[in-house]
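From the methods appendix. Each design record in this collection lists the tokenized structure first, followed by the designed amino acid sequence. Records were kept in a plain field format so they could be parsed without special tools. The example shown here is representative of the layout used throughout.

RECORD:
FOLD TOKENS (123 positions):
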């Protein structure tokens, strides 16, 4: 398995998407923000056959959108939980019978509509 590394270069689009939240991110030392993130392959390091090193891959954040309100934040958390359940339980015999896995599939199946209605629920 390859080691994962993140490239420190911040693309202008990513910087612009994060800029409205930068003040809060600076002030809230233990803050957390839900976001949709797109990663891109930047570099691959494959050690020679006689080297005692692990291969590694470097990734860069090329797209990000931060949840701007509580409704969007909760929807993204549901999506994250669904992806986690599928990754950890999906494809197993127990997972196929587990209602959490079925719920995760439903959330992911309808995930594209999760943010729809955010403005109507806030009024």
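DESIGN:
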């Amino acid at each position: 398995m390859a080691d994962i590394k993140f490239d420190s270069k911040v693309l202008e689009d990513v910087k612009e998407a994060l800029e409205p939240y930068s003040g809060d991110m600076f002030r809230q030392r233990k803050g957390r923000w839900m976001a949709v993130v797109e990663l891109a392959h930047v570099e691959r390091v494959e050690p020679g056959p006689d080297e005692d090193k692990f291969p590694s891959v470097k990734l860069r954040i090329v797209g990000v959108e931060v949840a701007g309100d509580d409704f969007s934040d909760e929807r993204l958390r549901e999506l994250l939980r669904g992806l986690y359940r599928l990754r950890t339980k999906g494809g197993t015999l127990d997972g196929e019978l587990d209602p959490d896995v079925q719920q995760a599939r439903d959330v992911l199946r309808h995930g594209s509509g999760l943010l729809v209605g955010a403005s109507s629920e806030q009024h």
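APPENDIX NOTE: The first helix runs from residue 12 to 18.
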